[in-house]
Structure formats: C-alpha cells, structure tokens
C-alpha cells in the first residue's frame, strides 16, 4: 500500500486532492451571441416593416371606402335638392292650384296703395 493513503473507507492517490464534483457550464462565444442579437434585431425590423405595409394597405382601403360613401351621399343630396326644387317650383304650384284646387288666373288685378309709416330717428 505504498503511495496511497486511506481516508475513511476511500483510497486516494498521494499528491492528489479530493475532486469536487462540478457541473460544466457551457457558454457561447461572444461573437455568436452578437450575431444572434443582430439577427433578432434585423428580424424585428423586418416584422415592423411588414406590419407598417399592411397597416398602410388597410388604411388606404378604409379611405377609399369612406370616399365611395361620401360620393354616394353627395349624389343622394343632389337628387334630394332637385326633388325639393321640383316640389316647390312655381310651375308645379300653379298646376296644383289649377287642377286640384280649381283656381283660375285672375282677370282683374287690383292694387292697393299702402302708405309707409314714418320711422322715428
């Protein structure tokens, strides 16, 4: 038993200390981490760019839809203005007066002279 010493029931070679169990931590090289970070940043920027493009297309479609709605409403307004003007036109009123109310054109027109009242200064 030369060269060995006894500690408890275990034998260790002389000159060597007891080994401590260590877990080995694997680390990535710094250049790999930098490359990975750069790739994540580039991917994030690409996603932002695509999202912005999608949002621009969506907003453009909404604007065109709103413009079409405005055009339709303007056409309806013009049609309603025409119908209102047609309903209150002098020709229509005179036609209704003659046909439905049995009125006729006056034969004698009498004018009444109205004296203006003096206004106080």
What does this structure look like?
The chain is mainly alpha-helical and about 120 residues long. It has a domain at about 30-100. About 55% of the residues lie in helices and about 5% in strands. It contains two helices and two strands. It has helices at about 30-85, 90-100, and strands at about 5, 10-15. The chain has a two-stranded antiparallel sheet with strand order 1-2. Strand 1 (about 5) and strand 2 (about 10-15) form a beta hairpin. The longest helix has about 60 residues, at about 30-85. The model has no long low-confidence stretch (mean pLDDT about 85).
Give the SSE layout.
Blueprint: E1 4-7, E2 10-13, H1 30-87, H2 90-99
Antiparallel strand pairs: 1-2
Question: Which keywords apply here?
Answer:
121 residues; mainly alpha; two-stranded antiparallel ribbon; 2 strands; 56% helix
Summed over residues and divided by their number, the pLDDT gives a mean of: 85
Name the strands of the widest sheet in spatial order.
1-2
Q: Tell me the β content.
A: 5-15%
- Characterize the overall form: rod-shaped
> How far apart lie the N and C ends?
143 Å
Q: Order of SSEs, N→C?
A: EEHH
Kindly name the structural category.
mainly alpha
Q: What is the number of E strands?
A: 2
Largest sheet report: 2 strands, antiparallel
Residue windows where pLDDT falls under 50 for at least 5 positions: none
Give the number of helices.
2
**Helix fraction bin:** 55-70%
Roughly how many Å is the radius of gyration?
Answer: 50 Å
